[in-house]
Automatic annotation (TrEMBL):
Protein name per its UniProtKB record: MATE family efflux transporter
Ranges where the record places region Disordered: 1-24
UniProt-annotated location(s): Cell membrane
PANTHER family the record matches: PROTEIN DETOXIFICATION 44, CHLOROPLASTIC, PROTEIN DETOXIFICATION 44, CHLOROPLASTIC-RELATED
Primary subcellular site in the record, as a coarse category: membrane
Ranges annotated as spanning the membrane: 46-66, 78-102, 123-145, 165-185, 197-218, 230-250, 271-294, 306-332, 344-363, 383-405, 412-431, 437-456
Species assigned in the record: Nocardia terrae
Amino acid sequence: MSSTEVVDGGGEDPGSLRKPERLGESREALAAARGAEAAAAGPRRILGIAIPTLGVLVAEPIYLLFDMAVVGRLGALALAGLAVGGLILAQVSSQLTFLSYGTTARAARRHGAGDERGAVIEGVQASWIAVGVGFAIVLLVQVFAGPVTRAIAGGDDIASAAESWVRIALFGVPLILLSMAGNGWMRGVQQTRRPLLYVLAGLVISGILCPTLVHGLLGAPRMGLEGSAVANLVGQLISGGLFVSALWRAKVPLAPHIQIMKAQLVLGRDLIVRSLAFQASFVSAAAVASRFGAASVAAHQLVLQIWNFLALTLDSLAIAAQTLVGAALGAGNARGAQGLARRITAWSTVFSVFLAAVFAAGYSVIPRLFTTDPSVLDRTHVVWWYFVAMIPVAGVVFALDGVLLGAGDAAFLRNATLGSALIGFLPLIWLSLAYDWGIGGIWTGLVAFMLLRLFAVSWRALSGRWAQVGAEVPGRMS
């Protein structure tokens, strides 16, 4: 089957989806051209990947804020039920981000090697994993939904509201995972605008249905909190369906391929362990912050949410690095991939220094946009300079994370994250509780976590051992 039958570029990213048969090129010549093209990517090309990717990353958090505003009008009980239910849904789906990041790494290498058909087949196999794991999660959590919501909620009324929301919203898990897989392979072949449109299509429909079903507008039944879950489910059905239709139109074999799925799961295992290390660290931080009182935990969460938003912003550049580095290595251009890594890391660092300067200047103003409580503001100012100091460090760390993910160096990233958490973050969190250091101690732990990661990924990047070429992601790296 020719590559002209494999990918519909949709008119985007000129040059990234060239057809060898149409241009009279061999796959080797196409790979060489793509390797050189990726390695020479300038600001326009990188931003062409990063900006739509940022749209995908922030669209869901923005919708969740809207959902909370709609449900909040039902009262505190409904809002608490949504908070608990949303936490459960997020936890059971967010651990499988390898369907996005791992698939990008594998598809980008095949794209760089001129194997467009193989790149899309990576998306097909990731989608099979999404469906299988997604339905297993639905079955498991439906069985234990009652005990889980009661354990988290702590009150029967909140647990009952959360359980009714969760039981409906859970059916969207396979669709969420299908969207992750779709984002993964499309980023790998450097199509970034279509995923943004697919995600926005689902969220716009959810945004229309949410107030309509929750409050019974326009003659619709007033479903209350359950209406929010139905609106979420319909939106996920639309986005997931659009990603599946893109695979169908690509005209590649849609049958499961066990060997490819096994290779994806090996990469996924390392990324899941890494994700669990993050979860354990931040859950511990929240638990310890809560021991220091309401003002401390509120300030911790406020600054942490700003940090998370900045992380998403910097992640968009990291994903551009992942996509382009993977393509360069797939094309056999290790030197070009290393140059690209240095260039994107430098740009990410400059951008992060600018962001740090903005937040340093906003020391007094920015926290007041979120709260006017004097005690919360006092605690916020305690951790603000820790937060500002970490931003330039994050600019380097996140960019190099993207480089190493693009190279498929997930095992190293797993070990670096686990080591940084066990040596730096977790000990300082719990020592803060033991010695009553307050949230300043918690954020000292976060600074140590970031500095240890900075040392690890910088050493790895400078070693050059990650730059292993070929269409296949290396199984293990030494």
